[in-house]
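Treating backbone geometry as a discrete language has practical consequences that deserve illustration. The sequence in question and its structure tokens are set out directly beneath this paragraph.
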Amino acid sequence: MAIQETTTVLSSFQRLLYSFLPFPQHISSTGNGRATRFSEIAMIPKPISHYKDLTAGGECKANLSQDEACVVLKTYDYGVDALNDDDKQLLHSLIGKFKDEIWP
């Protein structure tokens, strides 16, 4: 049985749209012969360097609840993978507070 290779030809609109994405090299194929969906591409994390223009760093302050402070210590001790769903919710809340301080 012969293996047939196929290629995906992007329209000019697709090329323009994908030119704004951080990793356009991931557009052409997922490896199984089908074109990658836009939603799959949009979920590819951007590198840290992407955020360099958004902040200069510096001091950030946030008021933590006792539970948020506890989840910080638990995450430090055991890592993110050890958090249950409630702990992750607290961690996301905490990250949101710091995000609002960095980029309101």
In short: Residues 66-102 form one domain. The CA atoms of residues 1 and 33 lie 17 Å apart.
